[in-house]
DNA sequence: AAGTTTATTGACTCGTCAATCAACAATAAC
DNA sequence: GTTATTGTTGATTGACGAGTCAATAAACTT
C-alpha cells in the first residue's frame, strides 16, 4: 500500500481536519486521535509528520492566516484608489471563504492559543501587523492624521464581528457583517449612510 | 479551626482565584487544584462547594458579568440624555475595574467556553441582550432607524477592543479603548472628531 | 538480492486530573 | 454528652490522552 510522497498529502489532510474539529467542537480540547481519525489515519502518523500537537495547531493557524492573506492581496490587486482599497479589505475579511463557522471558530481558539503559545502569538502578531499596514496606507490618504486610530478601530471591529458570529446559531452572514464595517468607514469619512 | 458560615467565604475566594488563574494562564486549562491552592484550600473542598469544575467556571463568569452589569447600571443612573447614556455605557465598559488583564483574559476564555457549555452560552446571551437593549434605547433617539445596526456595531467594537487588548503586553489602556469607541459614535452621529 | 528509505499502525508508557471517599475536627442542638 | 451538622483534607480511583516504539510492508537504490 505505502505509496511514496505521502507527506504533503497527509499534512494537508491533517491541517484541514484540525480546522474542522476545532470549529466543530469549539475548543482546543481536541485529541490528536480525533484529528487523525477525521483525516483518515492513525494518531501515530500524525505525530510522525508533525512531531507534536502544538505543531499541528500552528500549521492549521498558518493555513488559515495564509488563506486570509491571499484573499486580501487578491482584492487589493484589483482595487483602484484609496477608498476602494479599504473597502476591498473589509469585503475580503467577510468573504464566504473566510467567514465560515469552522474557520471563525478556529480563529477564536487560535486567539486563546496565542495566550499560551509563543509561536501562535507570533503568527497572530504578523497577521495584525499586515492588516494594520494594509489599512493604514489607503487610510492616510483618506483620514490624514487620524489614520492610525482608524486602522486600529477597523481592525478591532473586524475581530469583534468575528467574535460575535461564533455565538450565533445559523449560517454566518458575511454580507451583513461587511455592511456594518463599511457603515463605520462611511461614518468616519463623513459619507451619508443608507442601505 | 472549622468555623461555621465558611461557605460564602470559600465560594468567594474560589471565584476570585478562578478569574486570576484563568487570566494568568490565559486558558481554561487550569486545574481545580490550582484554583483551590490559590484560594487557600484543598481541591476536595472546592468540589465540595461547587460540585464540578464547570460550576466553578460558571460562577466566575456570573461574577464578572454581574460586576460589569453593576458598573453599567451605575453609570446609566447618573447620565442625563440619550447621548450621555451611550457614552456612559462605553466608558463603563472600559473602566479600570473591568478592563484589567485577568478580567479581559477571563472574558476571552468564557467566550470559548460558551461554545461548549450551554450554561455559559446562556449567560453570555443574557449579557449581550442587556447590553444591546441598554444601547438601543438611547440610540433610537439619536439615530432613529439605524439604531439597531449601530447598537450591534458598537457591541462588536467593544468586544473587538477587548479581544485585542489580550494580546498586548503592557497594562491595558482603557482610556484609549474608550476614546476609540467614542470616536466611532461621534462619527456616526456626525460630530466632529478630535482628541 | 540485499540494503535503505518512507509509510504506517497497534500496543504501550507515563503523566495528569476530575471526582469520590473515608476519616477527622469543631461547633451546634437536644 | 450524645447526636447531628458543617468544615476539611489526604489518599485513591478511573479515565483519558500525548507521545514513543517496535514491527511490518511497500517502494526505491545499487
Percentage of residues in DSSP E strands of chain A: under 5%
The count of helical stretches of chain A stands at: 9
The helical percent of chain A reads: over 70%
Largest interface: A-B, 38 and 38 residues
- The unreliable regions of chain A are none
Shape of chain A: elongated
Q: Main beta sheet of chain A: strand number and arrangement?
A: none
> What structural category characterises the helix and strand content of chain A?
mainly alpha
Quaternary structure type? homodimer
Distance between the termini of chain A: 58 Å
Describe this structure in words.
Two copies of one chain form a homodimer. Chain A is built from nine helices and no strands. Chain A is mainly α. In chain A, helix 8 runs antiparallel to helix 9. Chains A and B meet through helix 6, helix 7, helix 8 and helix 9 of A and helix 6, helix 7, helix 8 and helix 9 of B. The structure holds a DNA duplex (30 and 30 nucleotides).
Amino acid at each position: 500500500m505505502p505509496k511514496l510522497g505521502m507527506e504533503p498529502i497527509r499534512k494537508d489532510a491533517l491541517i484541514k481536519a484540525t480546522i474542522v474539529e476545532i470549529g466543530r467542537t469549539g475548543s482546543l480540547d481536541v485529541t490528536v486521535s480525533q484529528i487523525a481519525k477525521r483525516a483518515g489515519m492513525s494518531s501515530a502518523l500524525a505525530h510522525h509528520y508533525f512531531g507534536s500537537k502544538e505543531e499541528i495547531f500552528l500549521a492549521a493557524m498558518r493555513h488559515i492566516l495564509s488563506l486570509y492573506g491571499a484573499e486580501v492581496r487578491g482584492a487589493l490587486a484589483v482595487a483602484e484608489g484609496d477608498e476602494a482599497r479599504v473597502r476591498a479589505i473589509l469585503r475580503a475579511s467577510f468573504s464566504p471563504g473566510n467567514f465560515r463557522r469552522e474557520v471563525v471558530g478556529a480563529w477564536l481558539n487560535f486567539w486563546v492559543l496565542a495566550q499560551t503559545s509563543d509561536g501562535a502569538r507570533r503568527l497572530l502578531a504578523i497577521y495584525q501587523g499586515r492588516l494594520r499596514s494594509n489599512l493604514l496606507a489607503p487610510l492616510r490618504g483618506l483620514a490624514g492624521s487620524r489614520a492610525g486610530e482608524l486602522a486600529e478601530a477597523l481592525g478591532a471591529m473586524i475581530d469583534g464581528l468575528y467574535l460575535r458570529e461564533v455565538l450565533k446559531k445559523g449560517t454566518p452572514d458575511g454580507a451583513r457583517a461587511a455592511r456594518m464595517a463599511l457603515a463605520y468607514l462611511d461614518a468616519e469619512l463623513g459619507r451619508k449612510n443608507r442601505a
